[in-house]
Fold this protein.
Amino acid sequence: MNPSITLDSIQAAHELMREYIAHTPCLLSRKIAQIVPCKPYFKYENHQYTSSFKERGAIVKLHSLPDDACQKGVVAMSAGNHAQAVAYHAQQMGIPATIVMPRFTPSVKVHNTRNFGAQVLIEGDSLEEAGAFAVQLSKQQQLILIHPYDDPFIIQGQGTIALEMLRAVPELDALLIPVGGGGLIAGNAIAAKSIKPDIKVYGVETKRYPSMRQALNNEPIECGRYTLAEGIGVKQPGNLTREIISKWVDDIFLVGERAIEEAVLLLLESEKTVVEGAGAVPLAALVSEPKMFSGQNVGLILSGGNIDLPVLSTIIKRGLDRTRRLVRLSVSLRDKPGALAKLCTLISELDANIVQLDHQRTFARLPLESVQVVLVLQTRGSEHLDQISEKLSKEGYAPRHGEN
C-alpha cells in the first residue's frame, strides 16, 4: 500500500535521513544577480556524497523495505544519479544491488556506481528500454524494484530539499526545478506550497525531452535522441508524478541545448561549481526568462554534478570560442627565414597567447612563395581580438577568422 505524500510525511523523511546526507548550502549568488534582475539562491545538491539529490529518495525507499526484501536485494534502472545513490546507500545497509543503465550513460556514472559495490548491467538505448529490462529482472530474481521517480517514498525524500531551502531563505518567491520523470519537482512542490501557499513552483525540461509538459497537455510524447541534460532525458514521465505536478506546479519551461551549455559554463566560471546539464537547466531558464522573475527571490536546485570531464572540457572550449577568448586566425606569409618569428613577436607584443600554430606549405592554396599559418590564440575577449586583427591588418597579414 502506497503512503500518502504530505508535508508531514516529507518532514518525517527529513528526520530519517538527517544522519545520512549532507545539509547542502542554499546561497545567494551575487555574481549571477548582476546579470539577472532578481536574487537567485542556489541549492547545492551537487555537494552530496554521490553528487546529486537522488540520495534523499534512495535513503527513504531503502529504509522502507522489510528485512526479507533487503536480504534478496534490489534492482534499479538509471542513467546515473539514481544508480549511484541506490548503490551507495544499499552498500551502507548491506543490501545487494543490481543497477541497469542505458548505453548512453556517462562513463563517470557507470564507474562510480560499480565502485559502490553494485552489479552494473548496461542494457538498452534509452531509459525506457533499461527500465523494461530492470522490471523483467526484478520478476525473474524476486528483487525489489527501486523506481527512480514514480514512487511515493522516493518523492517524499526528494521533497526534503524545499524544507531546507525555505528554512534557509523563508522569503523565496519562486522555485525553479529540473524535470525528468518528475519525482524531484513533485515532492518539492508539495513541500513548498504546503509551507508557503503563494510560492510559485516552475519545472524546467529540455526542448529535446519535453515529455512531462506534453503529457500534461495531453499531447503525443515526441522526444529527441540526445541531450546534454541526459539525467532528465525521460520519454515516459511518471503517472504519480504527473498527477502531482498537474495539481501543484505552476508551469514548465523548456530550454535549448545552447542555453544549458552556457549555464554549465556560467556556474563553473561565476560560482566555481561543477554542475551537470540536468542540474544547470534552472539557471538556463532563469537567464532565458529574466523579466518573469524581476525583483523576486528565486530558488534554483542544482540537482547534480556528475558530468564527464571530456564533455566539460568541450563546453569550456566552446564557451571560450563564443566569448572570443579562444580564437582561430589564418594568415599568409612570405616563405622566407624570419617571417614566422616576426609574426609571433607581433602577437606577443599584442599580449595574446599562441596556444597552437599550424605552418602549412604543401596543402595551402597560395602562391608558391607563400605559406599559410593557422593560429589558435588566447585573448581577453572581443575587444582585444579586434585590436589584434586591426594591428595584423595594418602590418599586411590580412587575418581571417575561423579558417583552417
